[in-house]
Amino acid sequence: MLKPAAIAGQVILYGAFAAFIGYFATSPKYRQIPPDVALIKLSISHLGDRECRKRTPEELAKLPPNMRAPLDCPRERSDIRLEVDLDGQPAFQTVMHPTGLYKDGVSTVYKRFEVKAGVHRVAVRMNDNRSKPGFNFVKEGEIRLAPAQVMVIDFNPDKGGLFFK
To answer: Mean per-residue pLDDT for 144-159?
Structure first.
C-alpha cells in the first residue's frame, strides 16, 4: 500500500518535470534565420549524361548480329558542373560526381544561401556532359524575396531543366 507522503511526492516531482518540459517546449524563442533575411536553397539530384560514341560500320560488322547496337555507351555517367551567381558575383561552383560502385548513379547537391530580403539577380548554369564545352542548362532571373521566404532552385528535365520555385 502506498503512503500518502509518497503519492504527494510523486505528484510534486511529476508536476515539476512537466513544467520543465512545457517551458522549454515553447521558450526561449528559436528563429532559424534573422527576421530580415530570406533563403535560397539549391537542391539538385540529376543523372549525368552518358558519353556515347557512334560505332563505325567496320566495328559493327565484327560484332555478332544480336549485339550490333549503333551506339557504344559506357555504364559510367558524366560529372556535372554547376555554377551559381548572386547579384553578379560567383556564389557557388562545384563539380558533382556520380554515385554508385560503377559511377552510374545520381549526382546530388544541396546548398543554402542566406540573403537579405529584397530583389536579387540569380544565374544558374549547369553542364551534365563533360565532353561538351559550355553549359547546356542555363536559368537567369530577377527574384523578389520577402523576409523569411524560401526560394528553391531545382532541376527537372521534363520541365525544361533548371527552374526557381
So the answer is: 94
